[in-house]
Amino acid sequence: MSAQASAAKLKKRRPEQGLIPYLFVLPNFLIFATFIIIPTIIGFVYSFHEYDGLNPMEFIGIDNYKEILTNNEFWTALGKTGLYALIVVPSIYCLALLVAMMLIQQLRAKGFFRAIFYWPTMISFIIVGLTWKWIFGDFGVFNYMMTLFGQESISFLSDPFYANVSVIIATIWSRLGFYMVIFMAGLQAIPRDYYEAAYLDGASKPRVFWSITLPLLKPTTVLVLMLTLIEAFKAYPLLFALTGGGPGKETTYIVQYIYETGFVKQELGMASAMSVVLFVLISLFTALQFKLSKGGAD
Amino acid sequence: MELKSSAKAVLYVLLIVLAAIWLFPVLWIVLSSFKTNNDLYSFPPRFWPQPFTFEHFTAAFEKGNFGRYFINSTIVTITSTILLLLINSMAGFALAKYKFIGANLLLVGFISTLMIPLEVIMIPIFKVLSFLGLFNTLLALIIPPAATPTGVFLLRQYLLTVPDELLEAARMDGASEWRIYSQIILPICKPILAVLAIFSFMWRWDDFLWPLIAISDPQLYTIQLALSNFIGEFNVDWGSLLAMSVITMIPVLVVFLIFQRQFVSGMVTSGMK
Q1: Chain A touched by B132 (CB under 8 Å)
Q2: B69-96 mean pLDDT
Q3: Class of the B64-270 domain?
Q4: Phi, psi of A58 (to 5 degrees)
């Protein structure tokens, strides 16, 4: 740390704070620059090159991006991710809101219920995937329960449709608690006066929900929708453990596809270009959230 | 509004059903981990292990090298968390309590990197790690994730509420800036540092993506990376896999039960995972 040594000398010459604040920020900043800012720039540069990680890079302009446009596998993976998001986002929204609304009532054992719903959010995605693989597997208990109800047994993880269903169920199970807590905070921030006034005016419960709870919950709604959306597009570790992307490529979502393009096929330039596309998508969601939540603030 | 007792009964039934569904998967793998191999694959499955066996737990440590992974995960989790608390509080302190050129730019810079998910820069990060000689070292799992923007931001916001007079008084008494940080600021930050420590513990313990990018040497596997490898094998040894998962869940559960309140309140104020 020669920078630190020279800075210490400077400090002796100048009695005021001088470089001190910079020194305090330095460790954090260095790590940041090295592992986030520089990789972001490098990734952007890679995306305009043909690069296999071994031979020298070759500049090819926007050829990678052009190729993505006609790459069916990429769009299939992105489409699957989108479809997954389309189901997971509203499901988590509704279920988390439902559970949160139940848990803000005056109930016994509230803390116990809250802990049960919250606990899965602390279990790693790998173990979540593994848990559900054990449940949905061919010898799994879920299949057994289906036969109890007179259903045919299903090979969940080797059937394209049911493999996706398994992923969705596991995702909802593992993320519900997180959003439940956010909703509980949002619900409790709504002033009680509004409800009391509405009930005095003889409003019914569903009417109060639609006319008071939902509108006043808009900032929380926007936050939850955008966070779940971004999370859905980043899904990978859970899938890694639960389906491994299979059967075939049926549950290979976008992050796994990029990972395989980069690390398995060694097409670093192409994978970087795909990453840029994914980054633009996620940024759009974030920008949208920013815009909507400003609207929701007043 | 008080609910009618009939409404309340419906509510309880619904809650109990949902809670049972949510509890079942964890309960099921815990029970399964105590079953003999015969019992594990019996169809129809038995709910209760018959007989109870610890063989998968001992096998995990004896044959599966699980002890090694457990130690690796522990080293990474503890050192990375300490590093995070140190450098985040230093940066948060500087950004809250000093006026200097570029302070706002730094703050905005830190926060805006939240927009760049790790998933998007996996490939260049791999290159940077190799270039620095950090590939296949535990340092690659300890240092990079410690500089969280969330932590810096939380500490800065927290320290903004500390009156400047307190620091001025210390300066009058001849305290150095480092002394002010270590003897005044750090103790003040204890509550928020506790929240951060809990989250960092969970992040690092559960982390999969950093180990996936940075580690290929089986001796350096963290638990999550090891589990993810075992589950991909053709003949999955479910017995020891379930036993390892159960052991892996325990530390986080213990931390959660002790700090439940900080957990939930910390999450609400910061919106972080």
Answers
A1: yes
A2: 96
A3: mainly alpha
A4: -125, 125
